[in-house]
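I hope you will forgive my troubling you with a question about protein structure. The full record is reproduced below for your convenience:

——
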Amino acid sequence: MPAPDTAPGSAEWRYPNRATPPGSSLYYAVRFAPRELRDALAALAGFRHEVRAILDEVSDPGVARLKLDWWRDEIRRTLEGAPRHPLSHVLTATLEPTASGERLPAGPFLAIADAVEQELRRQRPPDTQALRAADTHDLGALFELLARAHGKHDESAIAPARQIGGWCGSVRRLRDAGLLLRRDRSVLPTDTLAAAGLSHEALASSEHRHRLPQLLAPEAEALCEAAPLTASEALPRALRIQQRIHAALLEELLRSELAVVDQRIGLTPLRKLWIAARTKR
């Protein structure tokens, strides 16, 4: 097996990579992580990026599921020391057991893949609880991996990492609601739409799309109430940076009155850098 440094194509998955491009929130989170962890954190984000990309890059559902299954198998191969993808070669060192005998489990990787499969199958979340669970399975699982890569393996750190990741994922869903709707992806739970006399397909129509900000407002208020007031100091700085950036993003979305139907509202790179730099070590 080629060493991670010499595997063809592996260099493109080191920090910064396509999952942590300059200006993104993950770019700044990883930038302020310990130098020796940056490539590993970027590679973990890269796995999620590649798996999520299936939703937008593969139009045939059958082919998409085959590609998703390939990535599931690739994680198992990588855990067994036989990676095939250049990204997996970078992940290899991250997946090796630490001095304490701990290693990254397959579970969070597979949870990210399962979240993609749910969307491929158009399994709409029936209620808000299911929508939150979907975000925790996705970004919450990545945050768990990021925490574990920092050496956090106790549930007292892993549970908050998943919670904050799921919350950040829900904020992102608000930000991307207009785009997700155009791509036939879930934006609101079925019961919320039914109460408004709508289906997902009806909301996506030109006749009803203008109602999206009004329907998102209760979701945004609920996220404000559920927001972690302060991320635990026991969590890695990278996760605390993510939490603070997404809290600022939620404020910006509310300030715009959730005008996300035809635009993507975000923070400037300079503001993200300012937030990251002010997050205590």
Q: What stands out?
A: The radius of gyration is 19 Å. The chain has a mean pLDDT of 92.
